[in-house]
Write a structure and sequence with these properties.
This protein has 186 residues and is mostly beta strands. The protein is 4% helix and 53% strand. It has 3 domains: 2-62, SH3 type barrels (Roll), CATH 2.30.30.30; 66-123, Nucleic acid-binding proteins (OB fold (Dihydrolipoamide Acetyltransferase, E2P)), CATH 2.40.50.140; 127-184, OB fold (Dihydrolipoamide Acetyltransferase, E2P) (Beta Barrel), CATH 2.40.50.140. It contains 1 helix and 16 strands.
């Protein structure tokens, strides 16, 4: 059992016959009245997101989630295939891999989460190295400030990068926030 007061991002639990994972949470202690926990939770099978307020002492059944290290193999237009170390392919639909797709390419290692033998989501590494495929050229003298510009990475995602980053360079990105971290020597 887990109490609502112990909620953190990624915690999975059973509620009304379904399995949910905490996407966001906030412990609130108002000046008057009892404290509570405000959550945004995602149903792991259907992907439906709910917002709910909990009493911190409320107890819920914790769900046991299995995680496996896998490799992103390919996309056939409808499904995304991930391979484990025994060369077994696991197909997932777009809704299950949507967040990770921004940061992964074929042959990248990921963590696939399973509940009762069925895969339901994909997590990529916290930091990834990707190539900038499109960005405006840097202007001389404009690289000393904290100014940023748009850049499109090889996975198709658009992020903000410092003015000194050019097309073709490798950069490290924090996948949790989508922020540029540093240039990487290639």
């Amino acid at each position: 059992m887990i109490s609502a007061g112990d909620f953190r991002k990624g915690v999975t639990f059973e509620y009304e016959g379904k399995i949910y994972t905490i996407v966001d949470f906030q412990h609130v202690k108002p000046g008057k009245g009892a404290e509570f926990v405000r959550t945004k939770m995602k149903e792991v099978v259907d992907g439906i997101v709910l917002e709910k307020t909990w009493n911190p002492t409320e107890k819920l059944q914790e769900a046991h989630i299995e995680t496996r290290n896998m490799t992103y193999s390919y996309n056939d237009g409808e499904l995304y295939y991930f391979m484990d170390q025994d060369f077994n392919l696991v197909p997932l639909n777009y809704d299950q891999v949507e967040e990770a797709l921004k940061w992964i390419k074929e042959n990248d290692n990921v963590i696939v989460k399973f509940y009762k033998g069925s895969a339901f989501s994909v997590d990529c590494e916290n930091f990834v190295t990707l190539r900038v495929i499109e960005s405006d050229p840097s202007v001389k003298g404009n690289t000393a400030t904290n100014a940023t510009k748009d850049a499109v990475l090889e996975t198709g995602v658009k992020i903000q990068v410092p003015m000194f980053v050019n097309e073709g360079e490798l950069i490290r990105v924090d996948t949790r926030t989508g922020e540029y971290m540093e240039r990487v020597k290639g």
